[in-house]
Amino acid sequence: MAFSDLPIVGFLKSKMAWHQARQGLLAENVANADTPNYRPRDLKPMTFDSAPGRIAVRSVAATRTHAGHVTGTAIAQEQLSFDSSRGTGWEITPGGNSVVLEEQMMKVAENQFDYQLASTLYTRSLGLIKTALGRNG
Length: 137
Hints:
Layout: H1 7-31, E1 41-43, E2 84-86, H2 101-133
Antiparallel strand pairs: 1-2
Helix pairs in contact: 1-2
């Protein structure tokens, strides 16, 4: 099984792709802060259950070797795409623009932090697999 076939790795890759797509939308919102009648856009939150690009769990299952072990079941997975939404905003300028720069910059900072978290988890997962295989490099 390839490293990229692991479900958690697939989810982290999808999460990082979601954050990249969201960063693009947030940048468009900031760039169009003075455009008349522009409404800010954002992606709907990504959850573990709706992660796009999730791969199906293959027939690899843990073997119960002791009565105290817990058995598990595979999780059904589905392919979904990112959904975006247009916000109405609370402040609307006379030109019809509803972009609030402070709000957008807070979303950018939050998105950056979450992307760094997913990236760190991805890197640590790779390190954990290397350690398990005995390749400490």
